[in-house]
């Protein structure tokens, strides 16, 4: 083994097991991400200084919304993986679509599922779609960070071949004897920590007072960081490289750059709404 090359740590995919009942790290990442995100969302809603007067969303409404967004993440994420990443396989094995414990979730599909959940819930409850989208996107990097860490723990979605002299290059159990980039950690840092920090600073500086600004910023920055991360991540074996060396993750992220930029421009031009009374 070349000097400084790191052996992938030996992790069990199961985080907790009591008899026949087992919780996998992958599921735990989603559970903790949604739970911590919900608590952070409640804190943002209760802080009237972050809003134009006060939050247009009540604590009761955000509590109810958790179920909606969870379903959006699961249904959208799985549907996106089926449609974008492995459709021929699932056409031949339709029952496998429901085997969520075997993995296979798409961020872009999950994001679209969340968009549907936000629009549906907001219209049903008579609240601002953009403000609910801002809250949802403001907390989303928490879940992204945790799920990317579980990707690393599971030894999946590893990176492209790296120079053996790279101090943090790793040999992954299913990646052959080739030293690889730990791209899951790159993505956890960019799509999770970095994105969360940028949005948190924007929120503290009053971005929630301009509906759609956090939503647009999340979409734009995630698209950029995902495209960067894809340069270090090995494409899915069943897809490989697509047109011009692009990957599916890159292609799905390109429209996000356009949509995010449009939302940011509209939010800035629209300005902040007039102060409203508290709805807590």
Automatic annotation (TrEMBL):
GO terms for biological process: lipoprotein biosynthetic process. This is Phosphatidylglycerol--prolipoprotein diacylglyceryl transferase. It is a multi-pass membrane protein. It is an enzyme of class 2 (transferase). Pathway: Protein modification; lipoprotein biosynthesis (diacylglyceryl transfer). The gene is lgt. The chain crosses the membrane at residues 25-45, 65-85, 105-122, 129-149, 185-203, 212-229, 241-268. It comes from Bradyrhizobium vignae. One of its GO terms (molecular function) is phosphatidylglycerol-prolipoprotein diacylglyceryl transferase activity. PANTHER family: PHOSPHATIDYLGLYCEROL--PROLIPOPROTEIN DIACYLGLYCERYL TRANSFERASE, PROLIPOPROTEIN DIACYLGLYCERYL TRANSFERASE.
């Amino acid at each position: 083994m070349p000097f400084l090359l790191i052996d992938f740590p030996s992790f069990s995919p199961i985080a907790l097991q009591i008899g026949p009942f087992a919780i996998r790290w992958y599921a735990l990442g989603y559970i903790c991400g949604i739970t911590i995100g919900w608590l952070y969302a409640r804190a943002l809603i209760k802080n009237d200084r972050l809003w134009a007067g006060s939050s247009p969303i009540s604590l009761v409404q955000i509590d109810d919304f958790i179920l909606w967004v969870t379903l959006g993440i699961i249904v959208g994420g799985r549907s996106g993986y089926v449609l974008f990443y492995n459709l021929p396989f699932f056409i031949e094995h339709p029952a496998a679509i429901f085997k969520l414990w075997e993995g296979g979730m798409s961020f872009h599909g999950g994001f679209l599922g969340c968009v549907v959940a936000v629009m549906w819930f907001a219209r049903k409850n008579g609240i601002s779609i953009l403000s609910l989208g801002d809250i949802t996107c403001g907390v989303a990097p928490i879940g992204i960070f945790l799920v990317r860490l579980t990707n690393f723990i599971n030894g999946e979605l590893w990176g492209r071949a790296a120079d053996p002299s790279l101090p943090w290059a790793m040999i992954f159990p299913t990646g052959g004897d080739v030293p690889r980039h730990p791209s899951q950690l790159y993505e956890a840092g960019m799509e999770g920590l970095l994105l969360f920090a940028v949005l948190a600073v924007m929120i503290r500086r009053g971005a929630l007072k301009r509906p759609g600004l956090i939503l647009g910023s999340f979409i734009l920055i995630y698209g950029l960081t995902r495209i960067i991360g894809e340069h270090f991540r090995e494409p899915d074996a069943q897809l490989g490289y697509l047109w011009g060396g692009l990957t599916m993750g890159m292609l799905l992220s390109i429209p996000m750059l356009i949509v995010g930029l449009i939302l940011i421009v509209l939010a800035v031009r629209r300005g902040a709404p007039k102060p409203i009374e508290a709805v807590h």
